[in-house]
Structures are given as structure tokens and as C-alpha cells.
Specification:
Blueprint (H helix, E strand, L loop, with lengths): L5 H12 L14 H17 L6 E5 L3 H7 L5 E5 L2 E3 L2 E3 L7 E11 L9 H7 E12 L8 H6 L4 E6 L13 E6 L2 E7 L8 H12 L10 E6 L4 E2 L5 E6 L3 E7 L3
Parallel strand pairs: 1-10, 3-7, 4-13
Antiparallel strand pairs: 1-2, 5-6, 5-10, 5-11, 6-7, 8-9, 8-12, 12-13
Helix pairs in contact: 1-2, 4-6
Length: 253
């Protein structure tokens, strides 16, 4: 079956409508590139139904994570929603949620194809301390391709106040606090060695699918830390040195 065929996208779209985000009929049947084509097709359907794509996410930016999933480059997804720092979720609003601690970059100019680090840096308008809120809507570890088809766990992003791009990103430290206690920390070099390299990779990868990065879009560049679970009653605060703070919470009931 041609994965670009509308009937294939229909199959995933209909499953999504039933609340089946990882359709069992497609287990172990998709390559990574095919999964991206499904993802982009589903996003097009969602946009046609009234949602709006505002940017992109880059995931699996740590070598250890790539090795764990047998995928030896990052992955991408689409961002269709953002919420401001301090946003509170309902106790039952999210599906098996978690969060990651990232720098979100807004583009001031278009980028496409093969670019260098300097070109990526020059294109960044502003940077936000941010949290990516993810949902585990199926067996992510066992079915990575289906996870990508399902938009790489993306739910929303929480954005703090924007700042100018710092001169050095690799040494920025993220300190994660959950319910008032330090839960972990990490530095910018955990993201491909430099979070700007996520922009470089994404511009090139999207070119393979006839897409480009556009001025005004945001890009979640990858987590400084491991992924943390998010439970009812949790209060999360992450401080990025020299950048700022971002917070969110989930109601207890």
C-alpha cells in the first residue's frame, strides 16, 4: 500500500476519531519516513478541521535516547498549541502525561534545506524557557513509528517570558522542581551538543518532505533532562540559568 495514498491517512484519521492513537492494524508496518508522512497528513486534517500549526518539536536529541529506541537521529513533530507559564491543567485533561525541559526558539526568518550553525543562530528571533507537555497515547517504546505518526507524543508547550538568544547555550543549566523539591537538572549541551543544532537538523530533515521552517514559527529544540511524569496535584517549576523560569500545574481532583 502506498503510504501517501489518502486511504492510508483515512485509516489513521478514523482510528483517531475512535480514540485509537496507535492503530493495532498498523503495528510493525511503518518505516520512520512513512510515519512522518502519516503525521503530516494527520496534521493537515487537523488544521483543516480548525486547529493551527504554530511550529515544530525536535525529540530524541540525546544519544542515549537514540540508542534506546534504535533511531540514530532526532525525530520531529508538529506543535499546534501553546499555553503561558502558570497554566493549570485539569486533573483528567491529559492522557498519561509527562513533561520535558527545553528552550523554545522563535524564528525571525525562513530557513530551508542544508544550513549551518551560524545561519541557524542568525534566524532566531527570541527564546523562551519552556516545558513540553507530552502524552503517552500508546506503546511508545515498542512502536516508535506509530508514536511519530501520532505526532511524537506532543500535546502542548508551556512558554515563559521571551528573551534574546544567549551567546552560549551549551552551559545553560535547567533546574527542575516538582512540588517544591529539586527533581533533576541538565545543561544545554545535552541537546545534540548545542540546541541550535536541532534547528540545523530540522531544516534539513523537513526539506526531505518538501517542508521548510517559516518566520514566526516556534521550535522546541529538545530536552535538557530526562522526561518526567506529570500527575494530578503536581506543581512544576523549571529555572533556566540566564534565560528565565517556566511553571505549570495539574489539579489534584
Amino acid at each position: 500500500m502506498d503510504i501517501d495514498d489518502a486511504a492510508t491517512i483515512d485509516s489513521f484519521w478514523e482510528a483517531r476519531g475512535r480514540g485509537e492513537f496507535f492503530p493495532a492494524a498498523w503495528f510493525d508496518r511503518l518505516t520512520i519516513d512513512q510515519a512522518y508522512r502519516v503525521q503530516l497528513g494527520l496534521i493537515a486534517r487537523r488544521v483543516a478541521a480548525g486547529e493551527r500549526q504554530i511550529g515544530w518539536k525536535v525529540g530524541l536529541t540525546a544519544k542515549a535516547m537514540q540508542q534506546q529506541f534504535g533511531c540514530y537521529e532526532p525525530v520531529f513533530g508538529c506543535v499546534l498549541r501553546s499555553d503561558p507559564s502558570g497554566h493549570a491543567f485539569g486533573a483528567s485533561e491529559l492522557i498519561s502525561p509527562g513533561f520535558e525541559n527545553e528552550l523554545c526558539m522563535r524564528l525571525g526568518r525562513d530557513l530551508s534545506g542544508t544550513i549551518g550553525l551560524d545561519e541557524a543562530r542568525a534566524a532566531i528571533d527570541t527564546v523562551y524557557p519552556s516545558l513540553e507537555i507530552i502524552e503517552t497515547r500508546g506503546p511508545f517504546t515498542a512502536q516508535l513509528a506509530l508514536a511519530l505518526a501520532d505526532n511524537a507524543q506532543q500535546k502542548t508547550v508551556i512558554l515563559g517570558d521571551p528573551v534574546t538568544l544567549p551567546a552560549v547555550l551549551e552551559t545553560i543549566e535547567a533546574t527542575v522542581m516538582v512540588n517544591g523539591a529539586v527533581a533533576g537538572s541538565g545543561t544545554g549541551d545535552a541537546v545534540l551538543g548545542n540546541p541550535l543544532l536541532s534547528i540545523v537538523w530540522l531544516a534539513g530533515k523537513l526539506g526531505q518532505f518538501g517542508r521548510m521552517l517559516k518566520a514566526g514559527e516556534i521550535v522546541m529544540t529538545g530536552s535538557f533532562t530526562r522526561q518526567f511524569p506529570l500527575s494530578p496535584g503536581d506543581r512544576v517549576r523549571t529555572e533556566f540559568s540566564g534565560v528565565g523560569v517556566v511553571e505549570t500545574s495539574v489539579a489534584a481532583t
